[in-house]
Amino acid sequence: MHYYQHHIGDFIKDTSFLTNEEVGIYLKLLWLYYDTEHPLPNSIFELSIKVNARDQQDALNGILGMFFTLRNDEWHHNRCDKEISFYKQQLETASKAGKASAAKRALNRNSTVVERSLDSCSTVVQPTNNQEPITNNHSIDEPPTKQRTKGSRLSTDFELPDSWTEFCQTERPDLNPQKVFDSFKDYWVAKAGAAGVKLDWQATWRNWVRNQNIVKPLFNKADIVHQTVPSSSQRDPALVKLDEDRLKTAPPNPEVLARMRALLGRQA
Predict the structure, then answer these.
(1) Domain map of the chain by residue range?
(2) What is the pTM of this model?
């Protein structure tokens, strides 16, 4: 085993009375146990070499007595035995699953070979009057589909059929069929998920053409003449009123004019 679950809380609680050197010895014994997947040998000398505790054999012997159990001349650890047993069960389960999967794949390959043999034989039989030959030919007016009952996505190499062009020219003569088809294809090819799957692409095309907005002609606002005053042969009433007011105005008093000239002469 190259991995095991180390429960820090339990380990600290169980080793709180050990020194750092003794904790290190205990950890190395556990690592040796998991690495070999086997109980430890009942040999202080051998274990002291493997965990690098040659000068601490008394501590090693005490740790074995506190945390391990001697059975059949081997040091056992309950937690290690449970983890190793579970690990081996997992390996066995995975092995069985792998063998079952391999057997299923082999069975499928054999079935495919038999089906191909039957298919090759069935092509020799000629259809009778009561039997119609089954073909996989698709209409040129719609993209190929594997199963018509399940729908399909629009193929990236699908081109504009002639019947689609004729429908667009008849239904919407104001449109350019190729440009409409290009936008139709780009939209549905990029459409993600189940929304991009259609059972009848020709019907989808008809609805797409019908829903196209009518192109309105564009005018330059500068070319449009805006008439704010209605045309008339009569003179503008406002101008007539100004002339009338001018005639009603009395000329200035001569004395007032003389005073104004005097004032202007002084300023000069």
Answers:
(1) 1-122, 152-210
(2) 0.38
